[in-house]
Amino acid sequence: MPLELGVWRIDSGVTEVPISYMDQERRLEDILATDISIASPNWMVIGRQVRTSFGGCIDILAIDRVGNLVVLELKRDMTPREIVAQILDYASWVQEQEADALSRIFDSYQEKYLHNGFESLDAAFCSHFRTQHMPETLNENHELVVVASALDDSTERIVTYLSETHGVPINAVFFRLFKDDDREYLTRAWYRDPTGTEVLAEETTSKGTWNGEFYVNISSSYDWEKAQKYNYVVAGGGQWYSRTLSLLKDGGRFWLYLPGIGYAGVGIVVDSTPVTAKEFLVRQDDGTEVPLADLPDVDPGVMEDIDEPGKENFLVRVKWLKTLPQDKAIRERGFFAQQNSVCLPKAEKWDHTVKRLKKRFDIQD
């Protein structure tokens, strides 16, 4: 059944804060366009009222930090069937948009809504997500999000049916406005775990089957030489980055990518359980283990935020088969690359990439 949300003030007794419906749906659209992190910190708005060639306008078009698109459509006064049919129609248009089209959409968005000149999509993306490089491929997958002030039974049934039966990466999020005297509070609740929808988007829109080879990405904020020396891969700075480390399996082979530089290593997962930098132990030549934090030349990037819950760096123990210095990293046109810390790619591009890397690293199966 639909989710219900309540707010109570408890500083002087227990008083329920009453629900206050927004004056108009446009206000919610304005709020989300101004700060999309209210819905998800992993999104950046690139378009608003985006007109499609099929007719109609997408309320908000966003991009996530791996270059996938997110279509957000406000329910307004539409029936459940109308809103779902519309967002699916928009999805059929969105999946065809390539990088040049996305740049034009972002230019129009800046001109009409931001009035701040014409920053390139690439530069805006890097600034927003605090990364040095935009993903090499964009719009490989997409997500669909119905935005509403409440989730009715019919919409819930349709979203569940499409996602669970047909694997459509669709979700619903609803917002409630609460007023306490002259203060206003906005609450958010997702119908389905949004992390699960992100994974579903990649699994259902990618073609082919996974070849058993893991893709691993180490951010440029970490010291690649130290990762080689102390036999680990690392991700951190938030759950979005670190959660995919759990995809790794003991004994699995992985290929290590340095963002914007190239592939610099291939290794085997020794212990797939992610542990914090404070907990990670480095095995010495004599078999003893020493806490990474006690080593004199530990990577300061790995030790950042170790006492701040949610931002810790997590490490997985590996055995390197072959590595290359950063300036010798392998990069070829057509190689697979994205910003997930770990993924199990199903794209044909990944099969091609692994085949080429085996030759370049002289790895014999």
Automatic annotation (TrEMBL):
InterPro entries: tRNA_endonuc-like_dom_sf. GO terms for molecular function: nucleic acid binding. It comes from the Bacteria. This is DUF91 domain-containing protein. It comes from Oceanidesulfovibrio marinus.
